[in-house]
Amino acid sequence: RSTGRSDHGARRYPGAMLVPRALALQLMSFPVLAALTVGCAPTRGCPECPPPECPPPAAAPAPECPTEPDAAPAAVDVAAAVEKELGPPPVADADEHRFARLAYPAIEGAFGPGTRLEFDLFGTSLRSVAFGVTEDVLEGLEVRMHLVDGRVVEPGEDPFPNMLGGHAHGGPRTAWIRTAPFEWRGNSLDEAWVSVDLGPRGRYWLEMPYGLIRDPDGPLPDDDTRERPGYAPAMKELGARDRIVPFRHVEYEVGELQRGWQLVARVSNPFDPHVELELYRDDGGVGQSAYRWAMDEPTTSATFITRGGARLPSMRMLTRLHEDGLRRSDHFKFNRRPGGRRSWGALELRVGEETRTIRVPSSLYLYTHGTADPYDERRTVNAAAVLGRWLF
Length: 392
What we know:
10-stranded antiparallel beta sheet; mainly beta; 9% helix; 5-stranded mixed beta sheet; 19 strands
């Protein structure tokens, strides 16, 4: 443009440096040098406003790294992912999980009126007991453990083949007992099923909640990405003689408390969790034991602590004295905890001023994690009858 135009620009923008057009074009090819030489133009119409910053030069694109087309994906650290999602595991008195007994609801009338069939798992040894019958209805029974991966495990030899049952006042034998021992299976949060086949008298499928078939002497396994339990592959086609037996409770011998008392905790999860705390004392005289108890002293409480530290409070629903006068049981019902991943939690028990905390799997406190299907019509008892309707 003309020199007059440049003079007009100089008058309009006082202090502006006049640069020949050819030199200006050369400087513009070097943005940084141009900015240092002529500066950036001030805001149009505002001589006092500071000049805007010059845009930085565009960075050169980073070179792409070659990738191996057949490279294996990076391994996923499941334990770290679960801890990030759920938080750290709660603290317990001992970082181990041991239970004394897994009990099942009695099957009334299994062999006719007045008869009863009971199952208990002491560790991984199943004890089957038939009551009210004068013949050995358990002879020839077949017991197997079914794992979720499809494996079927045979039991060892009966360690008590000649164990006698009950006799009523010297009359005929009315109870028959069989024991089927199994070995601990792996170290994971797996569930399992035990089938007890009585031939024409039926076949019973006993549910074992996840976390109970592992070896208690091993380290606690990592948490699991799986959620609710399921059936074993062998249960896909069950017939009319098949019945499902949910577990009633898992029993923990917590140990000695104040004044030499003993504490036992029984944990159930037929639909929502339930805990029975049984206090035992033998410091009473003959005929005086029951009178030494108070129904509200010592006070008791039970609280589940989930992975990540969430606390599930409970309400005491019932306190009762046993007929032997040596035991008092307090029953607690818990707030509902929606289901999630399988993990390890803790159960905090308070008796008076003393506190005990034991490790428990989430199958014992997460909502519906205690059974594969609470509505299955093949169950021997529904969810409400697992503990008895007066406790549900």
